[in-house]
From TrEMBL, chains A, B:
Its cofactor is FAD. The keyword Oxidoreductase applies. Gene3D superfamilies: FAD/NAD(P)-binding domain, Rhodanese-like domain. Belongs to the class-III pyridine nucleotide-disulfide oxidoreductase family. Residues 462-542 form the Rhodanese domain. The keyword Cell division does not apply. This is FAD-dependent oxidoreductase. PROSITE patterns: PROKAR_LIPOPROTEIN, RHODANESE_3.
Amino acid sequence: MSRTVIVGGVAGGMSCATRLRRLDETREIIIIEKGPDVSFANCGLPYYVSGEIKERSSLLVQTPQSLKARFNLDVRVSSEVISVDSDQKTIEVKTDEDIYTLSYDQLVLSPGAKPFIPPLEGIETADNLFTLRNVPDVDKIVTAIEETKPKKAAVIGAGFIGLEMAESLANRGVEVTIIEMAPHVLPTVDYEMAAFAHNELVANGLTVLTETSVVAIEDEGKSLVLATGEKIATDLIILSVGVRPENGLAEFAGIELGMRGGILVDEDYQTSVKDIYAVGDAIIVKHQITKEDTMIALASPANRQGRQVADILGGMKRKNKGSIGTAIVRVFNQAVASTGLTERQLQALNYEFKVVHIDGKNHAGYYPNASMVFLKLLFNPTTGEIYGAQAVGQDGADKRIDIIATAIKAGMTVDELPELELTYAPPFGSAKDVVNMAGYAALNIMEGVTDNIQLSELSEKRDSGAYLLDVRTPTEFEKGNIPGFVNLPLNELRERMTELPKDKEIIVSCHSGQRSYIASRMLVQNGYQVKNLDGSHLLYSTVNG
Amino acid sequence: MSRTVIVGGVAGGMSCATRLRRLDETREIIIIEKGPDVSFANCGLPYYVSGEIKERSSLLVQTPQSLKARFNLDVRVSSEVISVDSDQKTIEVKTDEDIYTLSYDQLVLSPGAKPFIPPLEGIETADNLFTLRNVPDVDKIVTAIEETKPKKAAVIGAGFIGLEMAESLANRGVEVTIIEMAPHVLPTVDYEMAAFAHNELVANGLTVLTETSVVAIEDEGKSLVLATGEKIATDLIILSVGVRPENGLAEFAGIELGMRGGILVDEDYQTSVKDIYAVGDAIIVKHQITKEDTMIALASPANRQGRQVADILGGMKRKNKGSIGTAIVRVFNQAVASTGLTERQLQALNYEFKVVHIDGKNHAGYYPNASMVFLKLLFNPTTGEIYGAQAVGQDGADKRIDIIATAIKAGMTVDELPELELTYAPPFGSAKDVVNMAGYAALNIMEGVTDNIQLSELSEKRDSGAYLLDVRTPTEFEKGNIPGFVNLPLNELRERMTELPKDKEIIVSCHSGQRSYIASRMLVQNGYQVKNLDGSHLLYSTVNG
């Protein structure tokens, strides 16, 4: 009888174990989990802090007992693998009571990623500082909230977990300050899309400090010292500045590691050491767009990888095709979703790319309670390859990013997005969905029907003497406009076109880019040099708070 | 100066006109619309009846004036084209005042589809009978409701418009009876998926009669005579038994027509008559999966076609690639969505196919207010080609069908569905989305890991002496079970397996198919002959009301 030992009993590990059992009734399957729980709802932890998830038991999706009964799995919690002998094919397991040796035929590592703890001066004295990875962590945070009744909290790091924890604490009545070293919150999306989340946080009463570093912790965690010298008083600190692969055991086993300490595996999830496999947040995968090594700490790829390695152990052919990294976070009433590469990543890779921003609706505008879905699409203007997309909105941002993530996985090009036939009835969508519209807009750029500039390029255009034209109505213009822009409403443009200079480049703006595009078409056909300000005043006013 | 005349000013026609203007400032563009409105919200009409859309003006998305101001379009409403001379390239236009002749360089027909009126005895005497196509129709219905205050209404035909109107009337307090000739409501989806809608209608107090024909109308519309001889009293009748292409003008022009009178066009939307193009509900398109001729009366393809023909007139290369027919309808708190081919269509085509039904959630089950998304996937078990999908649910059915519609358009196979990386955070999705799970289930069938039967095959299996096994808990089993099934809970199956016969085929059922699949894997590995009852008790109890 073959014995498979799986280290780590959450997403990847448990998907591997249950699939392996379904494929093989006779194999011995042992899961060793360091923590007290397996298969817990790790992505749900912040919502237990907020109180949205009321019962702690809801977090425990499976137990060792339920897994024994249904899948005949030998689940050993509160058990840590402290050594591996890959020649003898044994591991040493440490429990509260003892240390014992266990042999394996195959070892599957699914250790996950651990919160990064920066070497902040005074951090060891702060017993009000918490990170969030598992149920014991969330228990500590909830206990601290209940016992110390914090008035103020500081969240260091504005990634997904940071923002979810910030919202959860705010929902419990705590005054929250978010401190992020990067120029904007949500470093995994671009600055102008992150601005929607930033504004939503501020609108909900949170303080958001970007480009701000904490350099020390003083007063047993009651004071954070910033790089500026300024001090911030706090009763509770959440540290969420990213994760690192839990690679200690792999390193001990002599397994080859790669970038940022990630575990190197081949397409069959085999590490450099025979009969040891690895899956989940700790491994290095190929990015499906760049084909370069990357690490993607997300539940969906981890689950897929766990199942695939079970299939491979069960004798089936599977290959890890890599990941594109699709993610979403809720920030109060806004969702921010993304897939593929960001503009910043594309710039760093020196790819040729263009961007379109499209302002659409979650469903037909004439049906009640329509809300905005604002979509950013990044693509290659020569080949039409879709590089990535980001969306924000109260409702439906998830759907649009899921559609585009599917299109990217399928290798679709932007000219195929208008062809998509999506569900449409007034409560659910639009006859031309924002995804279709983004495809049209991208195709217009590829085919030279129109061209645009991004908001980040505006000051350069202004400096070079471009004529700045705003084609909204005077009423809209007076309510707020971008410095330097001259108002000439679209519906008067045909008659008053001669007021515009033919010897200057004209940058056209409107509310969100639709009318400026129409204007640009009129002007181009009349011999003007025109570029559309992508995202127009909507993006400008969002970025400028 | 070239003159393009567009006949029909709604989806396809108006998309053509506005795109053409953006491409060509100098061309003369005239739109001739028979009705009093252009660009109205045709899909929103039922929601104006219900009162959800409160303002009539919301239905009028554009007006001739707004289209003149922005796009320099010459929009002529209440104008009917009564003849075409394709040699002289002229048309005759009839208005309330006169008839005039207009020349064209290109003529684009976007006439749409009209409600089918069956030759029911007495129909001409029923002034309380209405069809629904445009704003004047909805005005008449709303006026009739307000003036005659109907207590009872009959909706003949249970397609999209029929069900939307039935719900809208019920929401206004009218007692509604739906009468459908086919064996189930929503003939565009399969019977077991339609059952969810049927039950929702009944739960909301409506009477639903299927396999029921109206043969005559008596008493000036106050009584409907059924084929059984039974009579149904009613104050108001909505007739919604499908649409027919509005092909009169095309026929007059000598344009070749095809199946069911649809207008034949080539990939460039050219009809058989030179310089006459056609788009929208009235044209015949290629079904992208079957490659056969079909007609698809939906807003999304019509809009795309209108834009594409404008591109072609503007000198760009476009091809009509065909359609797959993605649709959705809301039935009170349930949505029913579909894309591609149904099981019934696949049977008629004699395709090799398999089906899986997956019971999932709109978002993480441990996050509050999760609701069911029930997904049906149809595929080729040899090639993995995705033929179609249907989904029902309170929330998120649209998203799953959009994802699969995208996968179909991209030519993805079922083994690629588990690879999809979809947005996941507890309020938005699951780490393994129901779409991923459907892919896994289909792949299991393709690879022989498991096999299933459909509910429709159960009685045949019962008759042939199969052993029927229900692996739910005794508590679940006692609450309701399928006749002939024996209960043996999954968690006891390993110990009690010898109770089961090895010489009979075993059909395994549970709540929705997940536990029965796990059971089938245990049994198959122990030498039993097993098939999973797809959809299990959930589907059985839904179909059996």
